[in-house]
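Person: Please work through this fold.
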Amino acid sequence: MKKRLAIVGYGGQGAWHANWANKSDVIELAGIFDIAEKRINTARELGIHVYDSREELLSDASVDIVLCATPNDSHKEIVIDALNHGKHVVCEKPVALSLSDFDEMCDAADKNGKIFTVHQNRRYDVDYLAMQSIVNSGEIGEVVNIESRIHGSRGIPSDWRCHKPQGGGMILDWGVHLIDQMLRLIPEKIVKVYCEVTNITTNEVDDGFNLRLTFESGKRATVEVGTYNFLALPRFYMQAKRGTAIIEDWQKKTRVAKLKAWCEKEVLPVQTAAGITKTMAPRDEITLDFYEIERPTSDVHDYYRNLVTAIDGKADIFVKLHEVRRVLSVMESAFKSAECGSAIKTAI
C-alpha cells in the first residue's frame, strides 16, 4: 500500500513534489496547504485536495509523510509541529538557518520516534554521479583536487531567496547541494574553510561565492556558484594522481585523460607569444589515454522508494541527519570566513 504524502507550501518545489508524487509507485498525494490564494487556486484547478489549514493537514490520520517546502526561515516551526503530530517529515533544503535550530528539529524526531530527513535531491544528478563513479573506481588514481561550479547569468531569484531574514543567498540555495555532493566525493575531515562572496546584483545576500575546502589528507576542493557569469566554467574538474577528468556541463559526457607514462624521451618545446616552453607543452597519445565516459542513469523516484522502505524498517534512510548537520557546519564556517575575510580552521 502506498504511503500518503501531504505538502506544506505549494510553490515551485512543492509543486514539483506533487507532480512526482502523482507518478510514484510508492507514495500518493493526500493534498497540500498554502497561504497564497493563487497557489491554492492552481492546486484546485489540477484536482489536488487543498486543506483549509496546516492544523487540518497535520490532523489527517491518513497522512503518513509531511513535506515542508516553504521559505527557509519557516522550516523549523513546521517540521517540529509535524513531528509532534506523529508524522514522518521530509524538509526541503537548507533544512535550517542554524545548527541550533536543526538540533531542535532532530530532538523532536527522536522524541516522537519518527523519521526526519532532508530532500537532498541533487545526489541523483547525473553529472555528480559520473564524477562519483570515477572517484570510487580509482581508475585515474587518488584525488588531488576537485572543482565544482554552477554558473548562471540571470542574477539571484527575485522572490524570498534574495532576502536575508528568510534565508536567501546562494550559499544556502545552491551551496547546500554542491557542498553535500563534495563531502560525498571526498569523505574526509575538513581542516580549513575559506570563502569569498559576491554582491554584484544585490547587497542584501550573497549572489555568488567561492568556497575552498582543505581536507585532513591535503586534498583540496572548490565549490563555486555565480549568478552573473555569461560564459560558464566547467561543471566539474578533477585532478588525480594518474589523470584528469572534466565535465563541461550536466548534459555532456565526462572527458578523461589517463596517464600512461610520465614523459616521452624528448619533449619538444612549444612556441608561445613571447618565448618557448617545455613545461607547458601539450601531451599526446604517447603518454595519455583520452576517452569519454557515458552519462549514468538516475531515477528521482528512488528518493521516495528509500524513504518508504526506511519507514517500514527495511532499509537505512539515504539522507542521514549527521550528513545534513555536517553540510550546515560547512555553511556556517563559510559565512564566518566571508565575514572576517580569512580562512577558518575547522574539524568538520
Notes: The radius of gyration is 23 Å.
